[in-house]
Structures are given as structure tokens and as C-alpha cells.
Design a protein that fits this description.
This protein has about 525 residues and is an alpha/beta fold. It contains 23 helices and 20 strands. It has an 8-stranded mixed β-barrel with strand order 11-12-14-15-16-17-18-19, surrounded by 5 helices. Strands 5-6-4-9-10 form a 5-stranded mixed beta sheet, sandwiched between helices. β18, α22 and β19 (about 505) form a beta-alpha-beta unit.
């Protein structure tokens, strides 16, 4: 009786009767049998081998072993027959296919078919070991998609996966040697050679245009953006991990620019990262060591000049580094996630301090998008109001304009909850972002703050004046209060008042003060009010 595998390889049933083994075995196996019989005693005995054969027109991989038996020799009797070879084999085609699949997946992304980071590193290492390729050098690009999260959230992850597959195809069609998916929506491209800054920028711009073109997924159209960080072997050397690290630094710089953007690596970026790391370490201890404090900038009614509110501003005085500007440490706090703890501290401290002032002055506190996304803004506000005793009606939460499009449903629910509590909502730095104007009518917003960049040029700058007038018209039609930031002189205050702006903020109305100083100013203001009442 023959096994199923033997029947596949050699034929079965009556086909085997009366036929020689050499006529039944595939030629390659027959040659192995002959070699084993011809070898010296024990030379190949029991050695496990593997071979690919043609079995009935199909490719098959067999694992086999050949053992050779010598004829039995009894002293005094003639030896009958010669050496005998015994072939034992099994089909390992499926197992080898699975192993090959695992090896492929270890080096390739299963969704896009692009190589993984590890495989990219191995390929670059191998390429740079070749003197000619090393001399030619190479350029590494890191690309990160923007607005891709909105595709996943609005259309679903299956559509997001389809977009990623199309992105991979577009990148592979570019003039690059290798494309890798590093994870999520981040890709790497390797291009042989080192190019001029002009040539590199032109190539990056072409990639950005290619990636930003419309994606058709079923009946849906998706539009995403991208940012690129780039470096080359001339400035970053030949180690792939260093090249990727430097390209990532450039990508981080590109992410801080508006819209689709690209940035080349420079050694100064590494110094900035080290500075950021030092600031991060120092910042983790700053609150506990009382190095941070709040100041309060006045907000006044432009019609009367009466102070009706303040905005809380965080300040940091380090014993060795001196005063550190928020322009330096707030971005670091946002990049590291420390902004959540810092924002909670600002909110709690401001509510506690302002609640003790002798007036009903309103308090405005800026809340970072990261606090909305990863923190518990509602819980933080409830805790701050409860512990401080500050009425909810005296608190305004300021949000940035860009937050309106990041996750509109979640933002709307959170803002609506705060509004029901009595907390006011203001859009900060209006006009500098990309929010849809339709959100202004749907979201629970009380105030619009005109960014100081539009106020700074007034009254001479006609374009700024036109923008301010347009914002005023929009706000009035929607029933929103307008606050103008950065007012530095009387002319600006007068113009803004004349076009209908209700509230002003800036150095013209006084510099920001610490709690005790602002409390004293509020007390003087209250005394003046009382004296005026008695006088009248």
C-alpha cells in the first residue's frame, strides 16, 4: 500500500507494479538516490535535505532523508544483492509557504505592501556598505499625513485603509528607490543621491501635490494634507537610524508650519530638541517648586473704559534660566503632554485667586486642544469652581479656532455641557485658523476674540481694518460679543469702538498684574464707583 504523498509523487496503484524506481521518481530525487548509493559508506546517511520538485504539474517542496543499507554478509556464505537506498520524504510546501509569509510580514506592512522600518534600515545598511552607493549618498524623506484622522472618523476605518493604500501607490510612483510605512499615517522614502536645496524643495513640493490630490473611495471623495521632513547623508551621515531621526526632527519643524509644508534638517534643530528636553525636565518640577505664577491682563468696555474682566496668563521664573517666555515653554508643554497638568493648575489657581477679589470681575482662561482631547475639561472646571467658590457665570473658557474642526462632535458636546453650567465660551485668536464659518452659528459660543495681528496695524492698515469690520458684521449677525486683543493706543481703541467692538484688551489698558496687585486695582475701582454713587 502506498501513501497519498507517494502516489502524488510517483503515481499509485497498478502504475507502480513491475516498474523500476528510477522511472517513478522525479529526476532530481533519482539523482540524489544514485549519489547516495555511489557515496562512501555513511557519507550521506541520514542527512535531512529539502528539494523543490514537479509533482503532477504542481510545485511541491519535499523534505527527505536517504539511508543506505549494506548487504548482510554471513561468513562462509556468498553475499546476495548490492547496497540498498531507502528514501523517506514528506510534503512541507504549506509549512514553507507559511514561513515565507511570516518572513514577508516581518519586513512588509500587510495593508500597503510597503517595507517596514526594520526592513528599511536593513536595506539602507546593505546599500551603504557598497562603496559606489556610499559615495553617491542618499536622501531620506519622512512624510506625515494631516487631516487623515477626519477621514477615519467621518467615513470609517475601512475607507481610511483604502486611502492609505492609495497613498502608498502614489509614493511608489514617485522617483524614489524605496518607500516604507513606519506606522499609522507616517511614511518614509529613500532616494539615491544628494540633491541641491532647490532640487530637494521642488521634489518635496511635487510629493505634497501628489499626496494632497483628491482620493476616490467608493462613492466618497477624501482630501488630506501632508508634511515632509528631509535630510541627506551629507549632513546626517550614513547610519539609517540617524537619518530617520534627523528627518523626524525636520518633520516636527514642518508640522509647526501652516498647511502642507516641508522642512530640511539642520543641526540647529538638534540643539532645539535638547533645549526642549531640558525645559521639559525643568517644567515637571516648576509647579511644585512654585516657580510658575499667574498674571492677569485687564479687559475693559470700550464704550466706558470700565474694567469688566481679566485673562489669566502663566509666567515662569526659573532660578538659573531666569524668566522663560510662554512662547518657549507652552509649545514644549503641548508636545510632551504636560499642558494637561499645567492647564489644570492654571484653571484651579486662577479660579482660587479671582474668587477672593472684591468684585464680580469675570475670568478668562485659555484651554489647550490637548486638554479637550486627552483631559477632562468638564471635570476640571467643576472641581475648580467648587473648590474656589467662583460662580460659573464669572468664568470664560477660551478655545483656539483650529479646535473647531479637529473633532466637532466632541467639542460641541463638551462646550454645550460647560454652557449649561453657566460658563462662557470664547474663540481665541480668531482669523488666524481655518475654521468653517458655519461652526460659529452652530457651536455654543459667546465671544469672538480678534487676534492682535489684525489690531496691530490699525488704524493705518486698510486690509486689517477691512478684516475687523467683516468680523464685526459676522459677529453682530450671529449675536456674538467681540473682544479685540493687542490694543496699544487710543486711536486703535477709538476705531474699534466706532465699528461696534464691545471689549478691548492690551497694554493700552494696563499691563498684566499678579493677583495681589490686580486685587488692589479692583478695590480702587470699587471705591471709585462707590464714591461716584455717593456724589450723585
Amino acid at each position: 500500500m502506498s501513501s497519498r504523498l507517494a502516489e502524488v509523487v510517483m503515481g499509485g496503484g497498478d502504475e507502480l507494479v513491475g516498474r523500476h524506481m528510477r522511472d517513478l521518481l522525479p529526476e532530481a530525487l533519482d539523482m540524489e538516490m544514485r549519489r547516495a548509493l555511489a557515496a562512501s559508506e555513511g557519507a550521506l546517511d541520514g542527512v535531512l535535505k529539502e528539494m523543490e520538485i514537479d509533482a503532477g504539474g504542481e510545485r511541491m517542496i519535499v523534505e527527505y532523508v536517504i539511508t543506505v543499507s549494506e548487504p548482510e554478509h554471513v561468513p562462509g556464505t556468498p553475499t546476495v544483492g548490492g547496497r540498498v537506498a531507502c528514501l523517506t520524504f514528506r510534503d512541507v510546501t504549506s509549512r514553507r509557504a507559511s514561513e515565507e509569509r511570516l518572513r514577508y510580514l516581518a519586513g512588509h506592512d500587510p495593508l500597503t505592501g510597503l517595507v517596514t522600518r526594520k526592513r528599511l534600515v536593513d536595506i539602507v545598511n546593505a546599500a551603504m556598505s557598497d562603496p559606489a552607493r556610499r559615495e553617491a549618498g542618499l536622501t531620506v524623506f519622512l512624510l506625515d499625513l494631516s487631516r487623515f484622522k477626519a477621514v477615519n472618523e467621518s467615513l470609517g476605518h475601512s475607507y481610511g485603509d483604502a486611502v492609505l493604500q492609495q497613498v502608498a501607490k502614489r509614493l511608489k510612483s514617485a522617483e524614489v528607490s524605496l518607500v516604507a510605512r513606519l506606522g499609522g499615517d507616517q511614511f518614509a522614502m529613500v532616494r539615491s543621491g544628494v540633491f541641491s536645496e532647490l532640487g530637494t524643495d521642488a521634489f518635496c513640493d511635487a510629493i505634497l501635490r501628489k499626496v494632497s490630490d483628491v482620493y476616490l473611495v467608493g462613492e466618497h471623495r477624501a482630501i488630506i494634507g501632508a508634511r515632509i521632513g528631509v535630510t541627506n547623508s551629507t549632513v546626517s551621515g550614513y547610519q539609517p537610524e540617524v537619518l530617520l531621526s534627523h528627518a523626524d526632527m525636520a518633520l516636527s519643524a514642518a508640522k509647526r508650519l501652516p498647511g502642507n509644508s516641508r522642512q530640511r534638517y539642520s543641526p540647529e534643530m538638534e540643539e532645539k530638541i535638547k533645549e526642549s528636553q531640558s525645559l521639559e525636565i525643568a517644567m515637571r518640577n516648576a509647579i511644585e517648586l512654585n516657580q510658575m505664577h499667574l498674571t492677569y491682563q485687564p479687559q475693559v468696555l470700550l464704550e466706558t473704559g470700565e474694567m469688566i474682566g481679566v485673562e489669566a496668563l502663566v509666567r515662569w521664573s526659573h532660578p538659573q534660566l531666569g524668566r522663560i517666555s510662554p512662547v518657549r515653554f507652552i509649545p514644549v508643554a503641548e508636545e510632551t503632554g504636560l499642558i494637561i497638568d499645567l492647564g489644570r493648575w492654571i484653571l484651579m489657581t486662577a479660579c482660587n485667586e479671582v474668587a477672593r477679589w472684591p468684585s464680580d470681575i469675570k475670568l478668562a482662561v485659555n484651554v489647550s486642544p490637548l486638554q479637550f482631547e486627552f483631559g477632562d475639561v468638564v471635570g476640571d472646571v467643576v472641581r475648580a469652581l467648587t473648590e474656589s467658590g467662583l460662580p460659573a457665570e464669572r468664568l470664560d473658557i477660551e478655545i483656539t479656532e483650529g479646535m473647531l474642526i479637529s473633532n466637532p462632535r466632541m467639542i460641541t458636546e463638551t462646550l454645550s455641557t460647560l454652557r449649561r453650567m453657566g460658563v462662557g465660551i470664547a474663540i481665541d485668536d480668531f482669523g488666524t485658523g481655518y475654521s468653517s464659518l458655519s461652526y460659529l452659528g452652530r457651536l455654543p459660543i459667546d465671544k469672538i476674540k480678534i487676534d492682535q495681528s489684525f489690531v496691530r496695524g490699525l488704524p493705518e492698515d486698510r486690509e486689517s481694518a477691512a478684516i475687523v469690520c467683516a468680523v464685526m458684521t459676522l459677529a453682530q449677525s450671529l449675536g456674538k460679543t467681540v473682544v479685540a486683543e493687542g490694543i496699544e493706543n487710543a486711536n486703535q481703541a477709538t476705531l474699534l469702538r466706532d465699528v461696534g467692538c464691545q471689549i478691548g484688551q492690551g497694554y493700552h489698558f494696563g499691563k498684566s498684574l499678579r493677583s495681589a496687585e490686580m486685587s488692589a486695582r479692583v478695590s480702587r475701582m470699587e471705591n471709585q464707583r462707590q464714591n461716584q454713587r455717593f456724589a450723585s
